[in-house]
């Protein structure tokens, strides 16, 4: 829960920093940046808080399986930050039109 809270706050910051003139590409770039950060944190923390070496034992020493598993976990947990980023971008865009 702490990780999602951290990423959500980071999402709000990124949402207010991205220039609106970048449009959809800025939104996609911001979403990709946040996803990579969250996946990197998930991967570096190990499986259920264990060390990387112990985590790799669970995945038969396969880095690809371990990283794929963490990408899948990140994908499932990314809905809230993505909605926040979209809400901030839409809010800023509506302010610009007034």
Automatic annotation (TrEMBL):
<feature type="transmembrane region" description="Helical">
    <location>
        <begin position="12"/>
        <end position="37"/>
    </location>
</feature>
<keyword id="KW-0812">Transmembrane</keyword>
<keyword id="KW-0472">Membrane</keyword>
<protein>
    <submittedName>
        <fullName>Uncharacterized protein</fullName>
    </submittedName>
</protein>
<feature type="transmembrane region" description="Helical">
    <location>
        <begin position="73"/>
        <end position="91"/>
    </location>
</feature>
<keyword id="KW-1133">Transmembrane helix</keyword>
């Amino acid at each position: 829960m702490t990780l999602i809270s951290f990423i959500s706050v980071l999402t709000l910051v990124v949402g207010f920093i991205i220039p609106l003139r970048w449009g959809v590409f800025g939104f996609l770039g911001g979403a990709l940046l946040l996803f990579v950060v969250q996946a990197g944190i998930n991967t570096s923390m190990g499986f259920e808080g264990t060390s990387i070496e112990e985590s790799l034992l669970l995945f038969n020493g396969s880095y690809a399986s371990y990283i794929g598993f963490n990408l899948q976990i990140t994908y499932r947990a990314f809905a809230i930050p993505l909605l926040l980023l979209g809400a901030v971008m839409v809010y800023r865009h509506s302010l610009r039109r007034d």
